[in-house]
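Appendix B. Chain record.
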Amino acid sequence: GLRGTNEEGLTSGTRVFAMGPSLVRSNSVSTLESLEENARTWSSLEQYCEAHGGSRPISRILIANNGIAAVKCIRSMRKWEYAELGVEGALTFVCMATPEDLKANAEFILLADEVVEVPGGANNNNYANVDLIVDIATRKEVDAVWAGWGHASENPSLPTKLAKTRQKIVFLGPAAKAMYALGDKVGSSIIAQSAGVPCIKWSGSHVSITEMLDKGVVDIPPETYQQACVSTAEEALAAGDTVGYPLMVKASEGGGGKGIRFVAKREDLPDALMQVQAEVVGSPVFLMLMFAGGRHLEVQVLADQHGHVCTLNGR
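Structure tokens predicted for this chain:
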């Protein structure tokens, strides 16, 4: 069901290298000034990589996403290529595209250097299919995979399987260990409060792994994790008396409106617990105090493998 298209013409014949993921940035200057300066400074991507202590050459990148995510990725990296590096054709973008994307002549396809057609339909057939992504990345001999957001971007099996390929393909994103730790509502809350982040009162407010975090360990023991959860009506009622009302009953593996119930008074809690457990079968369940009138303020935190960290007020 896979076949390559648009394979000609856009890939540079000169072997080029790109630095591994890094957030080191030059002083803020205009694009034209940056182009002029870097054209004089960098004769090749290899030189840039060596000068900045790059640990892994990255030239070919598989974009395992579509739509505006893919467009933003390619444009952003191209801008860096032109403005910061000044070496045209240093990066090659291989994009996945469904028949629907091809028929619509989607913008990201026009920006790609190479396009691989993938099955259409639900995203588990294409952009969320980890085995398919790894297969394409391996066959196309890419150096790295960018999954963006949504789809397979938060599936820890993707970076894990990419690391096991013959080429040891790089995943441009969080490590699998970080995804496991922070992709779980209960686990991430335990880690956050143990690190001193203020948290809303919940059934796991008493659980702490501060000593483990001080040692750089984020793996939460099962028995510690379970202390933050409720599995029976009796446990829920006891935790609810501590948390207070109104509260929310939440499934750790829920999302999109599933596995969550509002409880205004104590007598409604047992039924709400049963509904959540039936809606997201097998998921750990926890209670959290209802926070009314809140506003969602989001901050993006970026960190690279070299220890550089920065924060952004938007994506």
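Further analysis of this model is presented in Appendix C.
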